[in-house]
Amino acid sequence: MNANLAAILYLVSGVLFILALRGLSSPTTSQAGNRNGMIGMVIAVGTALGTLFTQGKLDGLTIGLILGGVAVGGGIGAVIARRVAMTSMPQLVAAFHSLVGMAACLVAVAAIYTPAAYGIAAEDGTVHLTSLIELSLGLAIGAVTFTGSVIAFAKLNGNMSGAPILLPARHL
Predict the structure, then answer these.
(1) Is residue 1 pLDDT above 80, yes or no?
(2) Which of the four, 39, 69, 102, 142, has the lowest number of CB atoms within 10 Å?
(3) Are 40 and 14 in contact (CB under 8 A)?
(4) What are phi and psi of 32, to 5 degrees?
(5) Residue 6, Cα to own-chain centre: how many angstroms?
(6) Euclidean distance between CA atoms 76 and 88, whole angstroms
(7) How many CB atoms lie within 10 A of CB 87?
């Protein structure tokens, strides 16, 4: 798949994910938000599969791993979604969101340790500067997302007070 086309498709899916979050903020727009999220995910997964296919990396094992991941993740998500009360949905969203932040951190760390596997290694074995910047941003944003979501979960669940967290020497 053409890199420019893939970038545009990922951008479209990202916009659809943002619209999904916006739509899910109100009961009257929740169906449209849900639909936007599903369409965004189909575009993102289709683009990833198209990229793997054009790179010659889409073999039986890869397809099996993808389908296995979808089945396990979808199964766990379905079971959790059915068991959680609607009044606990904000906590569930915060918990799932923390996993997204952790995944971003783990991908960045894995890419740093095995740059050749991610196609970001220079000829001398180091990581390209642009990739280092991208991975650093991904790691920082993922870490903030993870910790913020864990704190949000704890506050929503009543495990932590709603008072602001004031760090010593914060103005220094």
Answers:
(1) no
(2) 69
(3) yes
(4) -65, -40
(5) 17
(6) 17
(7) 7
- What DSSP assignment string belongs to 48-117? HHHHHHHTT---HHHHHHHHHHHHHHHHHHHHHHHHS-GGGHHHHHHHHHHHHHHHHHHHHHHHHH-HHH
Compute the distance between CA of residue 39 and CA of residue 67 in angstroms, rounded to an integer. 18
Taking only the tens place, the pLDDT of each residue in 23-65 is 888 889 989 999 999 999 999 989 988 988 898 888 889 889 9
Amino acid found at 165: I
Backbone φ, ψ for residue 151 (5° rounding): -65, -40
pLDDT in tens, 97-133: 898 899 999 999 999 999 888 888 888 888 989 999 9
- Structure-block tokens of residue 14: 């990202």
